[in-house]
Amino acid sequence: MAIQKLYAGAKLRETRQRLGLTQKDFAGKLGVSLPYLNQMENNNRPVSTTVVLALAQEFGFDVTELSTGDAERMVSDMREALADPVFGDDPPPLADLRLTASNAPALARAFLELHSAYRQTHERLASLDEALGREDARNQSSPWDEVRDFFHYCDNYIDAVDHAAERFAEAGGGQAISDLACARLAALGISVVEADTAQLRHYDRAAGVLTLSSRAAPESRRFQLLLQLALVMQDQLLEATLDFARFQSDAARSIAKIGLANYFAGAAMMPYGRFLTAAQEVRHDLEVLAHRFGASIEQVCHRLSTLQRPGAKGIPFFFVRVDQAGTITKRHSATRLQFARFGGACPLWNVHRAFETPGRFLRQLAETPDGVRYISLARDVSKPGGSFGAPVRRFAIALGCEVKHAGELVYADDLDVSRARAFEPIGISCRICERAECHQRSVPPLERRLQVTPDERGVLPYRVG
């Protein structure tokens, strides 16, 4: 297999500017000529091995940060945005999108924000009667999408919050995390009680009482306890992080604050160092990790997807949760696999079959149209309402990584990852999937010409040229 060249001009330029060095000084420290550095910063040349080693030795730079994760995310997002019919039937070639994402990431982000604003306006006009009567009808992304993109482009890793949660958990000296949290809240005059109520968590500020539902599973009560502790004890840290994010609306900021508190809770239940060591020790056995850290399978999967601390990174995982309609309700990828921002995921992916086999892990070897191969693990997740007649929420979750990490996963032990035919073809979404022969295709690919022959009918009513 050919070695992929590393084009990371934007990251190289950003590093030099952060260090406050001129191109001449930076080139001297890296041991290359000034013209050569200029060509690398403009992506006319790949970053050489010599430069990678010099970055690590001279500046202690985590060379994994040179990966093209952000660029690939932006390429995926731009392709989906350009699938919008407003752009016509002749979108820019993929090479141009990759060049834009690599050389002009700020321009790519501006384009995505502009398209998001257009979509928001279009949706409001579609419901004109409602929009005319609202004072907040503005041209901006939905708060939910804005927050999701914030975590997405942070690699789902928030360094300051993660470290704070780890310090809190380790300060207990082996004390159970729930007991430690209750003790810290008690020191602030807040008592914690359990009650037979449908509401998972309720904090009465005036009375100083935090009520948790006794109907919820122990791991859910533990998580909600830590979430409230984050809102009470880590308010300054959360607010500082929100200031850095610069959200466009108060609604987005409020949603993000809950998201950061959720992040703190998960990181406190599963402290980074101990959790990473345990995950590597048990080869990412989800059930063992869930038992060891008192967490649910979903919480463990989500935490594994956040292990991207510079200098101590875990396996780059993707993590997704879908509902029974196939709509993605949670998504994150530290891999090259990027999920559709809107609508459902590829129907050929095993996450959709998880509903058919409740309580079981499904394994899948999959290959995306770009030739990258993955191992994917899927399982259904049910969340009972806690009483007779209460609705049960059903989801399916999937966790996966590139197949080169298969040796570090217990789930890959009896899979033949060397056999090409063992990998099922999957995509992202039909409109940007390049596969010409797919029996599950719902709409034609935008970038390909169609041939319609009235006298013939195959799997599809057209041929993709």
From TrEMBL:
CDD domains: HTH_XRE. Pfam families: HTH_3 (PF01381), Peptidase_M78 (PF06114), ScfRs (PF09856). GO terms for molecular function: DNA binding; DNA-binding transcription factor activity. Keywords: DNA-binding, Transcription, Transcription regulation. Residues 12-66 form the HTH cro/C1-type domain. One of its GO terms (cellular component) is cytosol. Belongs to the short-chain fatty acyl-CoA assimilation regulator (ScfR) family. This is Propionyl-CoA carboxylase regulator. It comes from Roseovarius mucosus.
